[in-house]
Each structure stands twice: as structure tokens, then as C-alpha cells.
Design brief:
3 helices; about 180 residues; single chain; tt1808, chain A; 12 strands; globular
């Protein structure tokens, strides 16, 4: 007789009762590491500022940090930064944002580069930015034919994002300061 393998499968309603910070990917919980280190936080603030300034004339698109993005009842993510160009009417985001950013850490790099990469791509999110604080490099991926294509990579470059009818010109050299 073969042993039956039983794995837990959690949903958003389970997630709401948990203490601490979690993400759930296809029913499997992933503990978020302790509070991000100062370098991570500084990069997040600087990148948010760049987008806020870049979108200053845009009335539709807003910059958010760490909100629940519910892709499905059993998949809840918390990207480091999002740009959303439609009103959020719930306590969480339940539709695809215009852009997501993940700032890598040792604990999250594999998940951010693989699991989340595929999830964001499958949701049709136009842009995915991966920031590597250790290498001081940013990677900008743009959706093309339902697949992410690397557009730019490096420590310092300017990239023009077209978000709905808004344009944001972002200087990635500014995020390391």
C-alpha cells in the first residue's frame, strides 16, 4: 500500500486569520522574512519616489507599496511596489496592476525570479521590474506576445514606461542613493 501524500491548501479566508506576514502561492503558504533590511527599504522608497514624480501629471495611475494582490482564492502576493491605473474598491487588489516590482533578498530571490515571474506573466501585467540590491542592478521586463522580454538591465539607465495613457520616465541610477 502506497502512502498518500497530503499537502495543505490554504485560501484567502484562511490567510486573513494568520499573524505575521505571508504570501500564498497556489494554496501553499510562504512566510515573509523579517522586516526588510535598510538597503531594501531605501531602494523601495527611492523607486516609489521616482514613479511618483514620473507620474505626477497622471490622474489615473497610483503607486503602492506592499498591498495584498489576490490573483486567485489560493494565491495572494505582496509585491514590493505596484502601479495601479484603475480604482481599487476592495481591501486588496483583485485585478492586474500595470506594473509590479520585486526587490530581491536571499530569502526571496528564487521565488521572485521563478514562481512570481510566471504568475505575473500569466496575469498579463505589462511590466515586471526585478531589483537586485547586492548587484545594484535593475531588470525591466515588458510583456510581448504574453511573454516577458528583458528590455533593460544594469545599475543606471532611464526607461520610459507607458502605463495606460500615462508615461513615466524612470532613472534607475537614482534608486541606489
Amino acid at each position: 500500500m502506497e502512502a498518500v501524500r497530503i499537502l495543505p491548501h490554504y485560501t484567502y479566508s484562511d490567510y486573513l486569520h494568520w499573524e505575521g506576514k505571508w504570501e500564498v502561492i497556489e494554496g501553499i503558504p510562504h512566510a515573509m522574512s523579517p522586516a526588510p533590511v535598510p538597503a531594501h527599504q531605501q531602494i523601495a522608497v527611492n523607486l516609489s519616489t521616482e514613479f511618483r514624480i514620473g507620474l505626477k501629471g497622471c490622474t489615473k495611475c497610483k503607486v503602492y507599496q506592499l498591498i495584498d494582490y489576490v490573483l486567485a482564492d489560493d494565491t495572494i502576493l505582496q509585491p514590493d511596489l505596484l502601479v495601479v491605473c484603475k480604482p481599487i474598491t476592495k481591501k486588496f487588489l483583485d485585478f492586474s496592476p500595470a506594473l509590479v516590482t520585486e526587490i530581491l533578498s536571499l530569502a526571496t530571490a528564487l521565488k521572485d525570479r521563478h514562481s512570481k515571474f510566471g504568475l505575473y506573466e500569466s496575469q498579463g501585467i505589462p511590466y515586471y521590474i526585478i531589483v537586485d540590491p547586492d548587484a545594484q542592478e535593475a531588470e525591466v521586463y515588458a510583456l510581448s506576445d504574453k511573454k516577458y522580454r528583458l528590455e533593460k538591465k544594469g545599475p543606471a539607465f532611464v526607461y520610459d514606461f507607458l502605463l495606460e495613457e500615462c508615461k513615466a520616465s524612470i532613472d534607475f541610477g537614482q534608486i541606489w542613493q
